[in-house]
Amino acid sequence: MPERSRDWLERDEVLLRLRERARGLVAARADVAGVSLFGSLAEGRAVRGSDADVLVLLAHSETRWLGVRWGAAWISFATRPEGGPGGSRS
User: pTM of whole model > 0.85?
Assistant: First the structure.
């Protein structure tokens, strides 16, 4: 099997690094309720030049939600347990 070039996206390595960063963010910030990955990388169809589409869910924000409906695969990397530090998710 030919060796991949260094600029090719190594999905498993990227997912591992994103998961580590997401868990660190949830642990460090009480306002972060969860972190999820969506899009081509989550769906397993990423190609050369693909990016990582990441959603950071806040427990509370003054910014109005746009109500966007996502029709994509999700990989949930880290979530704050219900009732844990950072308050409730309502």
Answer: no
